[in-house]
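Possible regression after last week's pipeline update?

I re-ran a chain I had predicted before the update to compare outputs. Posting the input and the new output here so someone can diff against the archived version. Not blocking, just want to make sure nothing changed silently.
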Amino acid sequence: MNYSRLIAFCLPLVAAGALAQVPTLVTPPAPGSAAMPIPAAPSVPTNGYVLMDYDTGRVLAEQRGEERMEPASITKLMTSYIVFNAIREKRLRLDEDVVISEHAWRSEGSRTFVQVGTRVPADVLIKGMTVQSGNDATIALAERLAGTEPAFVEMMNQYAVRLGLKNTHFDNAWGGPSPTHYSSARDLALLGQALIRDFPEDYKLYSMREFVWNGIKQQNRNGLLGRDPTVDGIKTGHTDSAKYCLVSSAKRNGMRLIAVVLGSNTVKDREDASAALLNYGFTFYETVKLQAGKTMLLKPRVYKSAEEFVPVGTARDVYVTVARGQSGALQKTAEVKGTLIAPIAANSVAGTLTVRSGGVVVSTIPLVTLSAATEGGVFQRLSDTVRLWFR
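New output (post-update):
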């Protein structure tokens, strides 16, 4: 092939757009937007707490949020997460009978009143764990999935790492006190977020007020379910050393918040603290959906490709939590970073969507290719090579 003649032929193509700027899309804020002034978070009777927006993960208020504390029966959120995953992967059936071991039967604290040597449907044990917080039901499920409770605890700690829980370590499946059994309010908020996000249908169990097994009516200990109709979970906890704990979640007008309260002195204290935090978040903040996932924001040039352009957007819906009344002041900037050269797989990171409020960056989200860009033919690759010389 005569490459000098090919290059001479390709040179005019450079003038046809080879020096084009990297695509950028800027959406300016709406005029006249004003945010509501935000007071300090309420002072609540507890050792530590976190208030987090579910969709964005933004922490709206916290006190000793990353300090390691005893989680008590809130531990069962991790046990539930693993059980729900086992059901999804068909390693456990709801109608499957689970044998109750002596270890499960002899468990201390709250119980579902299952008897040693009997076979109890997994569905009943799951309700006993989520509604009644039964330690016996929890251990029985752990033994069914891992053979022994210690083996299941190893799984729990592996999942903690996978979910990014930095201040969490478990020694048992049900929440018994131990020097190396701990978590933090932040980690428990993240765990609650993961449970709701990954298992939305199973999460509905946490809103059950009661269930009956073997003639015994068992009540949900989360009193907020009766106080606030927007609350639909999640989990209580109590030991003498951990005191009274509660992870709660509520959804109002499309906005979901998660509150974690650890170390309150009474049941009323943990409920009052949780209610105050949730009301504070819903009053002074709002979460808005800025961008639908898988929707094209930019269509940049792709070099050495059979396709001249590739659509770029966010992989998921984009939410931002801001002071109430401030949503109109948000500015979006979508920008492709660098030069795109084929081949490029779908969902490859191609740029950044930056969201600002009053000039301050409040969120940065990767932009990905919404389709693949396959490699072009010899002529296309050579002509684009020439174009790239002049960039």
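Follow-up from reviewer: compared with the archived run. Confidence is low (pLDDT under 50) at residues 11-21. Marking as no regression found.
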